[in-house]
Amino acid sequence: MPKAKYVKDSHTIMTEMVLPNDTNTLSNLMGGNLMRLVDIAGAICAQKHSNRIVVTASVDHVSFVNPIPLGNVITLEAKITRAFNTSMEVVVDVYSENIPAGTKKKTNQAFLTFVAVDQSGRPIEVSEAIPETEEEKLQFERALHRRQLRLLMAGRLNPEDTESLKQTFFNSPTTI
Ligand SMILES: CC(C)(COP(=O)(O)OP(=O)(O)OC[C@H]1O[C@@H](n2cnc3c(N)ncnc32)[C@H](O)[C@@H]1OP(=O)(O)O)[C@@H](O)C(=O)NCCC(=O)NCCS
């Protein structure tokens, strides 16, 4: 397995200004344009962690809490939460800033899964991501549950196969 890396080693920050072509008819950033930026920021983070080509395997838990108006500056902050075998979960937080007004707020959060691949597109092993801060350790723990849920939703996992999902979905005791 490649050498383990710290979460902070692939921390990625991307900044963009919302221009007229990016907006919807209410002059706010269009959701699809935001998702494109989220995907790019997340992919850069996953590439930095794995030093590989990465592909997006899934995007989940995208929340649109506040609209982002024309002229605002958005900052996308991407961090790996956990690396598995060939896949990595990345969380992207989005902040919107009105620089002249001096205001800034968090507008979105998304969790994405990227898979490192070789030149032929075959999945390839990635290094472990080591969490250091309390927040990173919390996200590391939760990433396992999120992975199980997303693989379940994708039809790639049977709830019977994991104890935590078995309890969530069937509310059954762990021992029968
Ligand atoms: C993602 C992809 C490489 C997985 O290929 P695969 O043949 O299913 O490979 P595997 O079964 O070995 O799975 C590889 C990893 O992908 C993960 N994975 C596959 N489908 C997934 C999904 N829907 N959500 C999350 N992870 C997924 C697996 O859990 C596995 O992770 P692990 O190695 O860490 O355990 C393949 O489906 C692909 O190339 N998809 C298209 C990607 C793409 O074009 N993205 C851009 C879309 S516009």
From TrEMBL:
GO terms for cellular component: cytosol. Residues 8-120 form the HotDog ACOT-type domain. GO terms for molecular function: long-chain fatty acyl-CoA hydrolase activity. Gene3D superfamilies: Hotdog Thioesterase. It comes from the Bacteria. One of its GO terms (biological process) is fatty acid catabolic process. Coiled coil: none annotated. Keywords: Hydrolase. Belongs to the acyl coenzyme A hydrolase family. PANTHER family: ACYL COENZYME A THIOESTER HYDROLASE, CYTOSOLIC ACYL COENZYME A THIOESTER HYDROLASE. This is Thioesterase superfamily protein.
